[in-house]
Amino acid sequence: MKAALTEHLTRNSPRAAPNSADDSRTTISGVPIAPQYGPADLAGFDYAGELGDPGLYPFTRGVHASMYRGRLWTMRQFAGFGRPQETNARFRFLLEQGQTGLSTAFDLPTLMGLDSDDPRSLGEVGRLGVAVDTIDDMLTLYDGIDLESVSVSMTINAPAFVVMAYYLAAARQRGFDWKKLRGTIQNDTLKEFHAQNEFVFPPEPSVRLAVDVIEFCAKHVPQWNPVSISGYHIREAGSTAAQELAFTLADGCHYVEQGLERGLAIDQFAPRLSFFFNAHNDFFEEIAKYRAARALWAELMRDQYGARQENSWKLRFHAQTAGCALQAQQPEVNLIRVSYQALAAVLGGCQSLHTNSMDETLALPSEHAVTLALRTQQVLAHETGVVNTADPLGGSYFVETLTRQMKQAAQDYFRQIADRGGMIAAIQQGFFRREIAEAAYADQQEVDAGRRKIVGVNCFQQEEDNTIPTLQIDESVEQHQLLELRALKKRRGRDAVESALTRLQQDAERGENVLPALLDAADVRVTVQEAMDALAKVFGRFQPMAGW
Amino acid sequence: MTLEKPSQRVLLAKVGLDGHDRGIKVVARGLRNAGFHVIYSGLWQSIDAVVQAVRDEDVDWIGVSMLNGAHMTLVPQLLEALKKQKLEHVGVLVGESCAGRPAGIDSPGRRRLLRSRNHAIDAITGFLNTHAAAPVA
């Protein structure tokens, strides 16, 4: 076992050997770093081919010519807790504090497609995010918000098609024009099988349902990003930066292929595929990762999939600072970590950014902590001057070398996935999980051995007086949500519910897009779990492998 | 010549809806590399299923990982279930990152609450070795 691990580490993430006499350094992911870089490192550099100007293929330097001079990234703090009315209040607070887009966190039952009254939801309702059971919760959640002028992101995957339908039904009920709705639904089921484990059905039907959302939005909600192809969670699960990059783009390719197989034209849906990356601690590695991502995606879309529209080639991404890099010891130090991580995301050209709050290893963000996190972005945008030119680090010997290396590492992974028979086969072989678990273990060994220093944890520790005030979720939240749900179930017409569920099941069986049936189901107050249970009859449930 | 003690048997489990398994998998590898016999239950286990596995696998320790605050509800339930099944001799480790000490975790016996990440594997294996169950006569 140890021999295999050593071999893997040498093969995939070369680290300085523990007993090396010299001062060898690596990135957090294990990529060796030279003491200095110079022109020799960029021999054969082809500016137009490898970089292009900002806003020009292959977009290494950014997807827009003007970047932040033209428009700042969206400041979009992930928020959600308790009942819809409480999250609605937090949304309004954040908008008042200068946030420019909304991002919705759902509770664990909702994320897993369960209702608040399921026995498994006991103790979980409203704890990690907002509880949503029906369209009524959706209406309350976004009450008083102009959905045609505020872009809304929803972080949900397993029941994403249900939640999307409920959002659209709620928007329609409020009189909003679907053609004017802007926002994103995460809807990236593949990374659930690699890392986050929020899935209900097996991989293939889960992908089919994700593509239903992509297809429906391409036709009816043209400004919506129907998927946020995510590396964030892969990284949080312990992957290296190269794995985060490679697995995310490979997932993107799989969705593209599924869309094409369904008969969609590439340029019909590709422009609205969006991405989501982690902003971790290793400053330059992260910047290189984002630049490599844009270049790789542009080439894939234009040359491999034959997209003709420029917007199909552009990788747009949201970034979130790394949750796994936050520490419980001396939590205020997290403010500093997040600042550097946010700077990396901005120098890397993100379109949208969430900065973590300092208290997030302890609880959901308090109002004070999330305000400071937002201010972090605002200082970055308005006081540092980094926004005044596009891709300020372009041409740096170090950054361009790292970018090249990142591209090569990703391409090596693309080959490995292809050799294994493609995405679904690789999932079934446990390929992604094993890579991630090995990287996570190697990372822990670095920390345990003190080779990787974490301030306050394995160096500069402090006796702590402790406890900054943290957000508490009252137990009454669950009780109230349950009462409301039970009352609703008594109130609504049972026949309408039954026939909506029957139609949903039939549409799913016939291979139809499930969104139209879900839209009707929303209006008659079908719950999220009822919809998921109906679909489970068609697709079955997936029990995760217990491998490690 | 000293007889080698049989390695301690550890069941690692994810109870409830929380699907974050990075930590528990790292602990699993660490324990295995340190010579423990490790069984991992996988995700979404019920208390009953876990206690059943504790009995079936005749383990010395049960380690549960919950990162969503559910430890306050689920750990007392687990301790109660172990008591009902006369499995109180089994040591209990809880990995959690949110605030609160669940009832029963501080009572005497082989119990430990591990808060957040960055517990060196050595610290965990050290604890398990120090508090190994006395061999049954």
Characterize the main sheet of chain B. 5 strands, parallel
Estimated share of beta-strand residues of chain A: 5-15%
Query: What is the ordering of alpha helices and beta strands of chain B?
Result: EHEHEHEEH
Strands of the largest sheet of chain B, in order across it?
A: 2-1-3-4-5
**Uncertain spans of chain B, ≥5 residues at pLDDT below 50?**
none
Structural class of chain A: alpha/beta
Structural class of chain B: alpha/beta
Task: Report mean pLDDT of chain B, rounded to a whole number.
Answer: 87
| C-alpha-based Rg of chain B, rounded | 14 Å
Instruction: Tell me, rounded to a whole number, the average pLDDT of chain A.
Output: 94
Helix content of chain A: 40-55%
Structural commentary:
The complex is a heterodimer of chains A (548) and B (137). Chain A has 548 residues and is of the alpha/beta class. Helices cover 49% and strands 7% of the residues of chain A. Chain A contains 23 helices and twelve strands. In chain A, strand 6 (152-155), helix 7 (160-173) and strand 7 form a beta-alpha-beta unit. In chain A, helix 15 crosses helix 16 (367-383), helix 21 (494-509) packs antiparallel against helix 22 and helix 21 packs parallel to helix 23. Residues 5-20 of chain A have low confidence and may be disordered. Chain B starts with 8 loop residues before the first strand and ends in a 7-residue tail after the last helix. Chain B is of the alpha/beta class and 137 residues long. In chain B, strand 1, helix 1 (22-33) and strand 2 form a beta-alpha-beta unit. Chain B is globular, with a radius of gyration of 14 Å. Helix content of chain B is 34%, strand content 19%. Chain B is built from four helices and five strands; from the N terminus they run βαβαβαββα. A five-stranded parallel β-sheet of chain B has the order 2-1-3-4-5, sandwiched between helices. Chains A and B meet through helix 19 of A and helix 1 and helix 3 of B.
